[in-house]
Amino acid sequence: MPLFRSEEMTLCQLFLQSEAAYACVAELGELGLAQFRDLNPDVSAFQRKFVNEVRRCDEMERKLRYLEKEIKRDDIPILDTGENPEAPQPREMIDLEAAFEKLENELREVNQNSEALKKNFLELTELKHILRKTQTFFDERESLMETESMTRALIPEDVTSRQVVAPHNLGFVAGVILRERLPAFERMLWRACRGNVFLRQAEIDAALEDPVTGDQVYKSVFIIFFQGDQLKTRVKKICEGFRATLYPCPETPAERREMAIGVMTRIEDLNTVLGQTQDHRHRVLVAAAKNIKNWFVKVRKIKSIYHTLNLFNLDVTQKCLIAECWIPVTDMETIQMSLRRGTERSGSSVPPILNRMMTREVPPTYNRTNKFTAGFQNLVDAYGVATYREVNPASFTIVSFPFLFSMMFGDAGHGLLMTLFALWMVIKEKPLAAKKIQSEIWVICFAGRYIMLLMGVFSIYAGFIYNDVFSKGVNIFGSGYKVNLTDEELKHHHSAMLVPDEANGHYRQTPYPFGVDPIWMMAENKIPYLNAYKMKISIIFGVVHMGFGVILGIWNHRYFGRSMNILVEFIPQIIFLVFLFGYLCILMFIKWTKYYAGAEDQTLTPGCAPSILITFIGMVLFKYDTVPLDGCDNYMYPGQVTLQKVMIIVAVLVVPILLFGKPILFKIEMNKSKNHAALHNQNGTAEGEDVEVAGVPQTDGHEGGDEPHEFSDVMIHQAIHTIEYVLGSVSHTASYLRLWALSLAHSQLSEVLWLMVLRKGLMFQDWYGGVLLYFIFAAWAALTVSILVLMEGLSAFLHTLRLHWVEFQSKFYAGAGYLFVPFSFENIMEVQPGEE
Prior knowledge:
This protein is α+β, with helices and mostly antiparallel strands. It folds into three domains: 9-105 and 283-356, no CATH class; 110-144 and 169-275, Alpha-Beta Plaits; 372-477 and 512-678 and 712-811, no CATH class. The chain is built from 26 helices and eleven strands. Strands 1, 2, 9, 10 and 11 form a five-stranded antiparallel sheet that branches. The chain has a four-stranded antiparallel sheet with strand order 4-7-3-8, with helices on both faces. Strands 5-6 form a two-stranded antiparallel sheet. The longest helix is centred in the first third of the chain and has 48 residues, at 92-139. It starts with 8 loop residues before the first strand and ends in a 7-residue tail after the last helix. Residues 148-155, 159-168 and 685-707 have low confidence and may be disordered.
């Protein structure tokens, strides 16, 4: 069974000729079945043999990222054919480097030219607006100079107010500035020049493109009139400080008109050149977009190969590379064939050598999975990677996880919604995977699509068992009850009890074929009935789940050669669990089958049925009722008290066995080892080498294992384990009551949404009732999906996860291993191009 236990791994030593090493590692990367060890742990990354090749690959990746950024900047779609090109040969690196260098230089040159042209175009456009806007200012110049304020500010006091300043005595500058800087610019001019300047401005309606960033900016044209060289210098410094661009503006209308014609001509020429430049740039990027995915794959494969080769050792002749790697035993032949293919591709005549090595090091854990089982294996690995070759719970989680989830989420309608969503992801998995959506929530949901599918299907099943579909019961087969009351009885009684007795005719004596009878959905005592039912089945399935976990420990004990642990651990554990909580489950079945309404014997009627909880507490405390109720028996079966006392005594007696059994056995083994070593010392004092070899197993016998070495360590470890198991059996059994609690909460929330939302919409009978129902149904559907499916589904998922990690896996699963991480191109390519 592939998932029952991890693959058997072996450590191999690999000898490769230097010329064939690259091709052989490339073949192993395509295969993805070898995890290489670093044989140069003390050598820094900058001192390894192939560091220059890795740097060249980094440089090629940088150029490709630059190309990708430019392609995305122009919104050019990147072609993804799904091809997986082979790793290029080392000699092809030069061709790739030359192609990328040529592309980068060409693109940078085009970008620089385009930026220069756009900058020139911006300047001409701003000059065009200046020439247009300032014409209005010059037309108003004479009237502005005649105003009283200008006369006081610009004309000396000894000149009469009737004198007019000649036009050549006023200077001016014109330019453009960002619109948001204009108010501060105007205030600074006024303060620095003390009001001795006159500023006119007008907004440029169209947005201008920044040649550096490509953003759209809004600017304004301004013209400043002043008198004197000192003010001119001051105005220019202020313009420079606010990053305003100044342009020459002729004084005469004829010169301005001539300059405007020249500017318009140059703008038209620039538009033509810019268009040709952009077309050329677009063609270069479109051609690159067709191949950039394959280029990324090739470069990353080359880089990963050289990274792996840096883990190898060189022999003294510098002609052979030595590597060590973990590989699955079953794939030895496949790996040897791939090595032979790599040797043939490289043209080498020396075949590679693959030798198995003996080691005490614990191998990595490798569980083969597919797209269906991978999600469940990830759930187990999130708790802890399985210790090498121990029982893997993932194969059992495939069934138990969705089943326990459905017990909490049990609603056929909500389960159908989850099933449809998961089924859509399963059917469309290839196109959805090709889109490579990076949303974290989507990635998690898509990776667990098969888990969601099973959870939805099991929830539909549990919903029909609970007879719960969007909080309403369905009557498929016809109820086993009928109302056998007259009209007069119905008038005088607000409610009536339907006793399943053959005498009164309320019960057809035939149970509902599948699930809960739909009449319970209308009963006033629905919640007490369902609570009792769900509480009991939660305990039953919890004890079965934990008991199965304890039983799985047998396979671990047998495989790792710990046969005595079956006697001192497994048997006491299973006795303690079964004699207490297993017996509790048996009492539930006895109560279900023995007591019933309409029984001829009064002692078997429901009123005489004892409380399971009180019975169990009395069993543990050795307290029993001596006075029975009228017409009833104290006990459910003969000899109950004797059997319960025996079971409690046995359950208590196995605790010391669980506590001291393993330490005592360990002490005995230690004494045997000491006697064995002493015997060797007496018989082999003259043969020092024999003594040394005989001593090796004593010092390294437990290397790589998880067993303590000292008796005190074993005693403390076993004491902790015993306390944890005994107390955990009680708390873990109670923990399974969350199956009942979450199921109750889910059904009640669903019922509240029905009563408070959708039922209100169905009560309107006028014409507007249909309109209101449309909006009310939308609100009900939104609340159902967001609260009952998403939030409640996530809550049930987390509680199910806890039941598996703590209550189930703690009985047999150590989870102290480490993952097998092979050198695989497929895993490397899962990282998005351009990401590290």
